[in-house]
Queue: 2 jobs
Job 1
Amino acid sequence: MLFRNMLRNLWKNKVQFFSIFIMSFLGLFVFVGMDSEVAGFTAAEDAFYTKCALADIWVQGKDFSSDDVRKVLDIEGVEKAERRISLKGKAVLPDREADLYLNFIEGNEISCLSPVSGKTYMPGSKGLWLDYNFAEKNGINTGDSVKLKYEGKEFDTVLMGTVRHPEYVYFLQDTASMMPDYGFYGAAWMDVSEYPGEDAAFNELVLDVYGIDNENALSKSEKDIKKALDPKIKDALEDDSLAVLDKDDNLSYQTFRAEMDQHKGMSFMFPVVFMIISILGIITTMTRLTKRQRTEIGTLKALGFSKNVITLHYISYGFFLSLFGSVLGAVAGHKYIVDLVLNMMKKTYLIPGAKGQLTSSGIFVITASVAISSLVSFLSCRKELKYPPAETLKPEAPKLIKPSWFEKRRFWQSLGFATQWNFRDVRRNKIRTGMGIVGVAGCTMLMLTAFGCLDSIEFITDWMYGELNTASYQIIMKEDATYEETYEYARKYKGQLLEITGADFEAGDIRKSGSVTVLEKGSLMHFQGDAFEHQFLTEKGIAMSKKMAESLGIEKGDFVRWHLTGDDKWQKDRVMQIYANPGTQGISMFREVYEEHEYDFEPLMILTNVDPKDELKDDDLVTGVQDTKEMMRSMDQMKEMMYMMMAIFISGAVILGVVVLYNQGILSFVEKSREMATLKVLGFKTGKIREILQFQNLWITVAGVILGIPFGRLLLRGIMADMPESMDYRAVIFLPSYLYAVLGTVILSAAVSFFLSARVKDIDMVEALKGIE
Amino acid sequence: MSLIELKKISRSYTMGERSFYAVHDIDLQLNEGEFVVILGPSGAGKSTLLNILGGMDSPTEGDFLFDGENIAKYKDNELTDYRAWNVGVVFQFYNLIPTLTAYENVALMKDVRAHSSKKSVWNKGEIEVMRPEEAIEKVGLKERMHHFPSQLSGGEQQRISIARAIAKNPRLLLCDEPTGALDTNTGNEILKLLQDLSRKEGRTVVMVTHNDSFAEIADRVIRVKNARIESDEKAKPLQV
């Protein structure tokens, strides 16, 4: 019978209880959705990497001979080793020349090709294998002839099949790009016997190592294996300058991991926000319910129900609501959110077979949500339960409320009736008001984050291509172009010369890979500090990007050891300047500083504002010309992702705002209906009473908005901080976004308030006043 | 042996720095099957006495023997068992659970018994809970048993309240101003019902009221004034 009683009470107070239900629902909806996505995607990644035996270690920096392979295989712990040639070339398409990562391989046991269509690659096979995105988007089918270009050499080959590759789960067009735009560029594989010409230089060695598997992130012991192998490889190959990289240095691997970490972080944020609102909802609803049912509690006690049974009865409200809300939310999240996010993510991360996967975390969060809700229900009703029935059967003695500091001041008397009434109402109902404020704050926070996400992406685009690099075009020279030849082009197109080389950096025990940017003085490449203040690149030494400095734990004035990939000389320099750059992380310096280190300045990139596209189309010394506008285009996909994120955030904001404000309003309305009836009897017009109610709502909204703005900024900062190490994304919110978030919240709040206050006209003065019996 | 024996029972309260007795030094014996009316003005201590008899409150001094068992020092959960097995209460304002129908309000007693301790000293294996229909039939409201309290008149609600109280076959039926919220005719009907329950079924009924005229229907009238028993008289009851 008590269960029936609970069900009817739930129905009677459906608005308040629904808000508790919906908060539990939403929390788990988003959490399980994202958690299942992360688990499913990570499992698919693990399976893909295991199936394709993703390399454990990459060695770069020289022309590796077959003897080198043998030497490496002799090292204890190395299971397999393969050589390959990795180059940047082009595919000559009917309408354009597309960038293509060319890989000439000797075997297919490490980081092997996963066939999508056509024939399977076997060592010694003839023909070409293309990444399936590139083949599909450019209409290249198996059996088609494809013209490729590399260092001026053009050669024809036939497409044998399309593939996926574990090192090309995520890949960018070049170091300057920030987002993938698969199909616009691509990756290709051929047997080494297909290499055009006699000068094949194996510039990469991939290793499979005992003790490193392809599941989960790299553990400490796996990192230690790599650390121990590093000097052994260098010793065996008698070359100290080699770059020995592990999966964490691999852009494809690392970016995906960082993205998953970001999703994991965000997935926890939602249940926390909704749980807070749910807790406040339970406190307000259960406190009021038990207060109202004080006599009923006394009666049940008098009839012989034990305190435990009655306590359990009231705990069951929170228990069942959060249980059903959480479980239904989890089921719905697993069914709807997973596919939504996965489909979007699959466009960026090329991992096959990802499906949502439920984890024990979902059960843990459901249990936590139910336990917290039950505990809060218990705490909310224990006051009414602790006295003997004789006490509980009597009406509660009125609470003694002393006038506050404000009410004793002179100005209090000059305040209007509405202000005084609302002030006292808020004071006497702190938790209810708190719930309203937190709800509005949550609403503003989510809206601000939503708009901020888009602002941040736009900001990064403008920052990168509008402020740091103000060139409209980038001319990429062929690797065999001499400095004099490149200089001539720079002079002709009024360009600025640039050399970007891969490098390793070391500070203490930490080692990171990045790039060294060397530039000639010019007006197209700019530098900014952490607060976006303009900086002139130091002429006295090297400058380090902020993200790299953070990863290495370096501050301005500290020393860093670095060496260029393929060079055996280690350099030690004091970091003279720290600059911020969203994309390329590493060090930058002027040509003169570089040459002081006894390096030759060999620029292969020219930044220019003069359109060289047509003139250089078939130039023998030029690999290609990149248009900044095209590079900005790659950001569109990121924007698309952000739009979806915005939709989720804004939907969350609206549901949160409406549910909490409506709940808060109904509670306040029910409690004040006698007072409002009295005001009506006294002659107050309905409009005036509505005004008083709306006035209070306005206070709550203003307080909530003020509180929500810093939290919105914090949340956005958290999201941006979770971006991969190679990206320096900033949480930026433009002024209009503040306005949109505030206006959105205010309009939502006003609409709910208007809708609720309309009920004033329905108050029956006689009924409301009779209700006291 | 008396069913109830109160020995030097007192109940004091403290308000701020001041203490006062709601009942003081009460000695009282009640026999099984008696219809007792406790009379007295407001604040005399009659409700406190009723609360102590019903195990809803504990005395601060003295002994309270029920069927030979001293329950004065009972803990909260022991008192709950005492109520669950021995006491039925009829309230002035009926105190029906508004979200349960008349039938469900009475059926609630099954839950009370189901939840109470089976190892309780009061569980003698012979007291069974009445079927809700049977209890409702006894108060003559069978045809309205599926109505919610809000659909019933005051008199009907009080009948259901009585049905609920007798459903667990209590040895002691306590009535706190059971006609206080009813008009005279309906009040008389309720009194008749309570008198019948005592006379025909041999139940011990203790009724608290401030209405002197109810003294006529009782077997025994106890007058309470200033926290003490002023008089305790056997009466020759009239049939209502």
Job 2
Amino acid sequence: MKKRSPSLSWLVVAALVLVPLVLPAFWLQNIFAKAAVFGIIALSLSFLNTYGGMVSMAQMAAAGLAAYAMAYMSVNGSGLGVPLPWPLALVIALTVGTVFGALTGWIASRTRGVYLLMLTLAIGMGVFSFAQQNNELFNAFDGINGVAAPRVGHLSLNAPIPFYVLSVGLAWLLLVLVNHVVRTPFGLALQGLRDSDRRLAALGFRVTLHKIAAFALAGFMASVGGVLMLWYQGQIAPGSVGLTAATNILVIAVLGGLRRPAGAFAGALVFILLQTFATDLFFRDRYNTLIGAVFLLVVLFLPSGVLGLTDLVSWLRRAIRTRQAGEQSSSTP
Amino acid sequence: MTARLFVNVALNGLTLAALYFIVASGFSIVFGLLRTVNMAHGALYLLGAYIGYDVAAAHGWWWGVLAAAIAVGLLGAAMQKWLLDRMQGQDLRQALVTIGLSIVLGDLLLARYGGLTYQFDPPDVLYGSVRLPADLGGYPTFRLFLIGVALAVGLGLWLLMYRTRLGMAIRAGVDDRAMLSAMGFNVPGLFILVFALGASMAGLAGVIGGSALSVAPGEDARYLMSSLVVVIVGGMGSLGGAALGALLVAYAEQIGLVLFPHYAILLTFVIMIAVLAVRPRGLLGRA
């Protein structure tokens, strides 16, 4: 496990604090907060893969279900659902996502590797199909629109600075949670599961339950991202849980490098920047081609994702130090 | 449920199963031998449909079919030779590469053909409908043709696998790749051939499916999902499994649409979950 350099962490924290003071609202909301939101969902995928050895393509579906549940229980412009006080709706929405995660884990419990990826993708697309064809709960193609973010006091959670603080704050909290969980006995068992689930079972652990619990935790994290996504977009539609959305989350996780949980946020930032500014760099609407090409390059040449480039810095440092030591030793008689 | 409705549902289910079988068979044989999950399979379907449309518009429908199958097969061969062959054994990485390719291909197709829905003109001999006996109405001729094509594809693949030397090599490779190589077979070449075959199945299905139904962006996602569910239910790497899975999934969809249209997809997934609970490898799958 690579040890993160503390100076890099402080740099990141300082940058995040400075951003709202320096950059305009567009950057806050549409770049950084959005990166935090999608980073949270990608974090759930990255957590499952790095510590559980399971690539789940159903994370966006979990996020989407939580978003749909929240929209259903909020005042919305589609006239659907039952408005509830937002804290209650929030708890129910997060529970929906977590239960869906556990269910996915249960369905996928006897599979592993690429087969598990396929199965979770099929599950995710099943959610998409269901959302698309069902009127009563999901409002079919139109989705649920006109959802207002809650108000706390006189602040709307949708406004740039409150939303930025909320999403980045939650992102940080979830990252701390992940780093804490992987050091608990449960987290260690999960890593044992990744390395060899048969050995873990032979030691007496209940492998299936561990898988389900890990998926449930990932589902919870994705749900947090999903609710934030709903508040950011003000609406939820089947397209938010479709194949493109699910693969985008995978792209983000891979871009950030699947070795470190924090990579999910770096990957999300790169992804959002590409998506937002590709129109200036590239032919107008072809940002998906650009993202796909970058993704391919990362998979083919940069297994640690774009964060692998920071490894370059420490590699260079080591190379210089070795060179200097070599010169010193060769200069002494 | 009148007799006519019953016959309609039965035939529609058979048509859909035929289409799903052709698409899923390509997906399944690629996994069976290469252990590669080709996430670009849906995109290859769409590519085949669009190529077929362009060629058919210029030279006629039959040339469109041939062009689609060959062009997509060649692309598949290129994918295997230049990209996937470097990562033999790394299943996840191969899946990720095919995902990346599907993103790029899907977007390029969207750029070239836009968001419109294309409708093919099937050849005159297949146009119109066939009168069913006993006053059960008519059924489109083309759909019956589709069922025929699926049967032919199934038979052809079975003959290839079980009655030719090539098929023997493929089956041996599924069991023990290293041994096959040790016996002097050109395994990388075999892989390229099989991948090309799987891809051309997708291309063929694209034209035929496009003619029976229609072509639009989003069809790639639909057929990728159906291929996934069909091989999960039927079993990976098994032709019989692809056929059985296709029948189950297609009928689940059709019956669901008739009985509870807003919850139809749940029936498909209940079946999938039930199969997985009992046989995690699929109904006819092997380890």
